Amino acid sequence: MKKNFLFLGFITILLLALSSCSSKNESVRFEGEGEHWKALYLLNKGENTENGQGSIIYKGKDKEKLGKVSYVVEGETGKLKGTDNETEGKINLNSNCSGCATQNSKVPYHVTIKWNGKEDKFDLKAK
Predict the structure, then answer these.
(1) Which end of the chain is less congested by CB atoms within 10 angstroms, N or C?
(2) Rounded to whole angstroms, how far apart are CA atoms 25 and 33?
(3) Can you say whether residue 43 is alpha, beta or left, with left for phi > 0 and alpha for psi between -120 and 50 degrees?
């Protein structure tokens, strides 16, 4: 009888330990490109948290002559946007949230970039 209790106790502790180790964390790589720009965004998400970082890079020459660049990266649950006067061809993207809804891995981000009277639009899709 004592062995049965010890065995059941051991199994219970083991199941609790294993269930606490299983988390719903996921890392997703989003990529895409338009005619003039390309982007990469790495998203790490948990059940109610999301941390992302990436960059948008100009594919052409004369990166120092881009001037003022405005961008919007819009996802299912939010958007990143900004304006930079001196990008030198690269825009860094960073986002963090806790207690938030998270981006579905199957839903793309929509990117719009405006500079020097021009516009480039494309989607970032999970790879």
Answers:
(1) N
(2) 27
(3) beta
What 3-state DSSP class applies to 118?
strand
| Phi, psi of 100, rounded to the nearest 5 degrees | -120, 165
DSSP 78: -
Cβ contact 93:73 at 8 Å: yes
Tokens of 17: 């330990």
Please indicate, yes or no, whether the overall pTM of this predicted structure exceeds 0.85: no
Separation of CA 40 from chain center:
9
From residue 98, how far is each of 10, 31, 119 by CA, in Å? 35, 24, 33
pLDDT 10s digits, 9-62: 555 564 544 444 445 789 999 999 999 999 999 999 988 899 999 999 999 998
